[in-house]
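Posting for a labmate who doesn't have an account.
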Amino acid sequence: MSFVVLFLAATSLAATSLRASEAPVLTPSTPWKVDYADEECRLLRTFGTGDDAVTMRLARGSGLQSFDMVIAGAHVPRLGRDVKVRMQLDPQQASAEFDGYSMGVPKRPERFIRWYDGDPQILAGITNNQKIRLTADNKLDITMLWSDGKAALAALQTCHDDLLKGWGVDIDAVHALKEQPMPDGSPARWVATDDYPLEELRRDIQGTVAFQLKIDSKGAVENCLILHSSKSAVLDQLACKLLRERAKFKPARDANDQPVASFYVNRVRWQIPQ
């Protein structure tokens, strides 16, 4: 079961005047909402009105060091299947680039652009009067005014901590580290499409596995624990087997800057290529 907490904006902000060559800034038309769902926490808000309206959803799930984001709207352009989405914070001029894709939904007028595994570091400097600009493929150019953005992200963090606590993660120990364990290489290489079990592939069985790895002080994986099942024991067990064999880390560091044992939480999405 999921339930929604409304996060009301404290102030009403007018649209910012921009140069004619720039896309208009979309101001909020709904309050922030934090949705406590079963597998993730979602931050939602709509910007702009009418045909120009864009709905944004930012989600935190099993990954301690990642977020997912979706934007949807009637005028969101159709992009390639695989696109680079650039997020820029203004006036800070901080930016990051993510691998995304666009899609439509039958009988829905909106188009969607989504990207996974965004580095939450880009969100660390967000203020309560923040402009977020999204560009991609020379077609997408949307700027949103995240009024009360810092407070909304704090509410999302509380939801995310509660979610992981419910799965048995020691959040206090995680936050006490000076540096989290960092993957040595790309986590996307730990489990690949070629690893898909043939029987599950044939039966069209898909799912997402949330896992916790125990990492020793040298960065090696000691154990893998399933936090949230894909509902397929075969996919769950294979994910952990591959992670124990392939995942390597730069160890976490404590407040004294010493390497220490720690935990790493993330997910594997078993998704059959279309």
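Reply:
Got it, the structure tokens are right above this. Residues 16 and 25 are 6 Å apart (CA to CA).
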